[in-house]
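Quick start: what a row looks like.
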Amino acid sequence: MNKIIHTSKAPEAIGPYSQAVKAGNTLYISGQIPINPKTGKIVEGGIKEQTEQVMKNIAAILDAAGYSFKDTVKSVCLLSDMNNFSAMNEVYGKYYSENPPARAAFAVKELPLGVMIEIETTAVK
C-alpha cells in the first residue's frame, strides 16, 4: 500500500501531486523547486541559492519519511541552462560527499514559476 508523505517543512505542491509517495521501501519525491516553505516564495539569488533551497526541501521530505540523503539512489536534475551545471554541482555535491546516487542532469526549455532548477529524488531503505 502506498503512503503519501507530507511535511510543512517543504513547499506545498503547486499542482495535483504529492510531495512524496512511499511504495514499499522506496520513496519517490516529486520534483522540488526553490520555494522557501516559510514564505511560499522563490528564494532570491542565483543557481547556488536556488540549488541550496531545493536540497533543503528534499532533506525535509526525506526526514518526514524517515529517510536521509544516504538512502538516495537516484536524482534527476532539471536545469533551465546547462551553463549552471558546475555551480549546481558544487552545492549538490555537499549533500552527497560519499557514495553519491545515480543521477541524470539536463537542460529543459523552462521550469515551473521560471526557476533555474528542479530536482526529483528516489530513495530506498
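That is the whole record. The mean pLDDT is 97. The chain has one domain: 2-124.
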